User: Fold these one by one.
Assistant:
Number 1:
Amino acid sequence: MSKKNTDTEETFKLYPIRIQNFEDLRNNKYVYVDKTELIYRLTHTYKTYFLSRPRRLK
C-alpha cells in the first residue's frame, strides 16, 4: 500500500514556460512573481544598471 505524500505535491510549482497569456498563467496556477516595485526602484535610483539576458539555446 502506498501512502500519498501531500507535502511533496505542495512543493512542486508550475513555471510558465512559453505561456504568453496572463489569464492562462493565473487560471492554471503557474508561478508568477510581480517585479513592478523592483523595476520602479531601479528606474528611480539614478544609477546605471547592466541588465543582461542569457543567450538563446539552439
Note: The radius of gyration is 18 Å.
Number 2:
Amino acid sequence: MTTYKIKGQSGTVEQVITLSSESPEQALEEAKQYFPPRMHNSLSISSENNEYRQLLRNHGYPERALNKLSDEECEGECEGWGFYDRTADH
C-alpha cells in the first residue's frame, strides 16, 4: 500500500487528507467520500514515491516546493525543465 495525499480546493477553501491505497485511482475514489461533490473534479493527488517527485528532489527542488505540487504537476515540471529519468523504461 502507498500513502497518498489528496487535496481539494473550491474558491478559498482547501481541504487535504491522507489515505493509504493500492493505486492512485483507488485513492481518488475513496477520497470522494471525504470531499463535497463540488470538489470532486478538482481533486489532486500526490505520493512520496512518485518518480517525477524524486527526480525533482534529485535536481535540488526544495521540499517546501515539492509539498505544494501534485504528482501531475511534478511530471509537468520535469517535462518543462527537460529532466528525464534515464533508468525508466520510457
Note: The radius of gyration is 14 Å.
Number 3:
Amino acid sequence: MKFARHIASRFAFAAALTASAFAAQAAGFDFTNNHFPPQDQSQSTLTRAEVKAQVLDAISKGQMLSQGQSYLPLSAQQQQQQQQPASALSREQVRRETMAAEKAGLLDNYGA
C-alpha cells in the first residue's frame, strides 16, 4: 500500500511537470494569428512636466478631480458645487442648531 502511494505521488509529480513544460512552450506562441487590428503608434509632444502642469491647472480650475485615479472632467453640477462658498456658520452655531432641532423632535433617530 505504501509503495502504491509512492508511485501515485511520483506519477502526479511527473504529470504536473509535463503540463507545466507544455504551458511554458505554449507561452511563446502567438495564438492571435494577427486577427487583432494593429495599434497606431503615437508619440506625445508634451514633456512629463508639461502634462503635470496641465493636470494641476485643471484641478485648480475644478475641471478635474484631485483624488484617486479619476481623470474624468467634472460635470457642470459638480463644478458649481465646488464653487459655492462654504457655510457662513461656525461649527458651534451648527452644533447649537442641531441640538435645538433634536429637542424639537425634527431629527430622525438614524442608527438608534
Note: The radius of gyration is 32 Å.
Number 4:
Amino acid sequence: MHHDLNALNKQAIATAREYTRELAWPTMALVLLVWAVLIADVYLFATGQLALTPAILIYAIAT
C-alpha cells in the first residue's frame, strides 16, 4: 500500500504541475489593487480627507 501512495503522490504532483506552470498574474494584480485601495482608504480617513461613512463603504466594497 505504501508503494501505491507514492505512485499516487507522484501522479498528483505531475498533474498539478500541468495546471501551475506560471504565476497567476491577474490574481497578483487584483491583490495589489485591493491592498492599494485599502491603504489609501485608511490613509485618507486618518488624515481627515475622507469622512467615516464613505471610508467604511469603500472598505466594505474592497473586502
Note: The mean pLDDT is 91.
